Fold this protein.
Amino acid sequence: MQLQQAAAELNLLKAQVQPHFLFNTLNNIYYLAYTKSDLAATVIARLSSIMRYFVDEAPKEKVPLSTEISFLKNYIELEQIRMLHAATLSFDHEGVDEMVRIPPMLLIPLVENIYKHGVDKSVPENEICINLKMENGKLNFNTRNTVHPVEKAGGSGVGLDNLRKRLQLLFGNDFTLTSEQDGNHYKVALIFPV
């Protein structure tokens, strides 16, 4: 009975991520259409890939890490296109076993927050570093991005609250989710067993 309740709660929390993500992406497309950008078609194609992920992969209990990486890259590409000055970006996942299976949509809230609350899309000085590595049977997902004072005010924290609830249901206390600001950089670390 408790397992069924936990599974139902997990599905509900996962389902809440999708509309949150779609609203953000549709805002991107609106911006491109509003500015009559030639990139609108490219963004719609990326969104199509993302929608395919929602239908085929997100309902699964676990998916290959390679699928999550591809999903993140599609999302990042959408956000980079939207920026007036694309951020300097590094996404390092070299040497990670991409066939390891993880619960879907655990990583995207952290990347979403970089673009939604971290970088300033109107200035050229933005840096984003994303790193995935495996250590001692655990996946380490680290993000680091520049922050600008004007960007600090927003954010309801729904995405991170939802992520923390999902992590607790999936791993109990066997996970780490920390964040800190170091000067003009914001860093988040997520570690969970695989």
User: Anything to note?
Assistant: The chain has five helices and seven strands. Helices lie at 2-34, 40-56, 65-82, 108-118, 158-171.
